[in-house]
Predict the structure.
Amino acid sequence: MCVDILAYDQPGKKLRFTVIYYLLSLTYNTRLHLVTQLGDLQGLETVYMLYKSANWSERELWDMFGILIFYHPDLRRILTDYGFAGFPLRKNFPVSGYKELFYSEFIKNTKYRAVELLQARRDYIYSAN
């Protein structure tokens, strides 16, 4: 069975993404950890046909990192909105995001707007005593 699929991002490397598959055999009481690395525009073939439990994890790889999973029967976003721009777990994704959701009293509904971070420049004075 496929226990889990993990990924992490290292933006300075040529093979930026590392994907780790954790597989378990209950019959032989054995665990197998498969590690692969991918570039920015590369993808993986699905293991969903062998392990049905990989469905959620593969969709999460697509939704959070933008890692394309070839031949997956239902590759769509599961943790973010359908109109969400970008992939939140990539290291180059801004912490505040690109858009924010707010409630408009005028139209009595929620709306999206671009994030504006207006802050005056702050000068910190550090004194060592």
Q: What stands out?
A: Helices lie at 54-65. The two ends are 60 Å apart (CA to CA). The first strand starts at residue 2 and ends at 9.
